[in-house]
Amino acid sequence: MAAAALAACIAVVPTTTAAAQPGFDSASDAQAQLAELSEESEQTNEAVHNAQIDLDAKNQQQTEAQAAVDQSRAALDAAQAQLAELKPAMDKVANVNYQGARTNRLFAVMVSDSPQQLLDQMSALDVISADTADQVARFKQVSSDAASAEQVAATAADQARVAAEQAKAVSDDLQAKQSELQGQIAEVMAAYSALSSSEQLALAGSSMPEGFDPTTILQNLTPGSGASALEAGLTQIGKPYVWGGTGPDGFDCSGLVVWAYKQVGKTLPRSSQAQAQGGTPVDQKDLQPGDVVLFYPDISHVGIYAGGGNVLHASTFGVPVKVQSMASFPYYGARRY
User: Fold this and answer.
1) Exactly one of 239, 270, 301, 322 is catalytic; which is it?
2) Catalytic-residue membership of 313
3) Ranges of each domain in the chain
4) From 220's CA, which of 9, 50, 84, 184 has a CA 20 to 30 Å away?
5) What is the pTM of this model?
6) Catalytic pick from 177, 270, 313, 336?
7) What value does the mean pLDDT take over residues 255-277?
8) Residue 191, beta-bridge partner list
């Protein structure tokens, strides 16, 4: 959750009576620090999900590239085996021609002693010539196939190498982001601990806005997967925010959306940015309960539209899954799945 939105959540926290915590000039400083750190951790958390999606795709490309290498090498081996099979016959043809032998009709006439011998020799020459021509043609074709297979194998090997390098680079980036996130989580936990128990309770806030009636919302839903996903998501109100959480014990923002839609048989991408690329775009004025709503210019937060300008979401550490007004969040867009 971004700093501005988190600040709106904790604005009701009393600061005049709370004691300042170590490292902070006042309790409000601790709240501001928590808001800033929470925003950073959620951005990194979604970046980790994006990197994992990218890594999965690169690993798939690497697997397909390696399969192409194996296939092309098998084709090359088969072509080379055919060449080896035809080589003795080609060597024999080459040797006969080198030694001055003749396999044409004129030569048969010149060396024949009788009409019958001529007919016999010409008949034999027809068979020899046809067989030799067939062998030569096969040898040429197999040679061409072998050369093509060798080129394909070399290209496939290059593609597999590039895919492996790209997968390694994405994997390294993912590990760096995961390490960064762990450090940020530790800072958020420390900042949260710096709040008094009353401040932590105020930060959690109420689970629904005043006047929000989930029963009425559910009764008036337009049938569809989005409505059913919202209905499933509402059962998770009160569950804690957990970085990387996909339920059922805890959720991060995109994890809650993934879980809710999974209950109705739909698989959504794991990150908020990827969720912003799927489904069908929806104008804000046309929002329906169950639509996926996205926030902030970097699309680092996501939730499920709950009707009446409200969103069901997992916002940040210390704030359980809740329904909250969207007014505190910079609106980015919406998708209908």
Assistant:
1) 301
2) yes
3) 52-193, 206-336
4) 9
5) 0.69
6) 313
7) 97
8) none
What CATH number does domain 206-336 carry, 3.10.490.10, 3.90.1720.10, 3.40.50.620, 3.30.70.60? 3.90.1720.10
Same fold yes or no, 52-193 and 206-336 = no
Active-site annotation holder among 253, 258, 294, 314: 253
Nearest 10 degrees: Cα torsion 180, 183, 187, 190: 160
**Count of alpha carbons within 13 angstroms of residue 195, beta-carbon side:** 24
Q: Where are the beta strands (DSSP E) in the chain?
A: 280-281, 292-295, 301-307, 310-313, 322-325, 331-336
Euclidean distance between CA atoms 221 and 307, whole angstroms: 9
Cα dist. 56→145, 267, 269 in Å? 35, 16, 12
- Exposed/middle/buried for 285, CB within 10 Å: 0-12, 13-18, 19+? exposed
**Per-residue pLDDT tens for 4-46?**
444 444 333 333 333 333 333 344 677 888 989 999 999 999 9
49 is an active site residue = no
Residue with structure tokens 């959306």?
Answer: 257
- Tell me the one-letter amino acid at 207: S
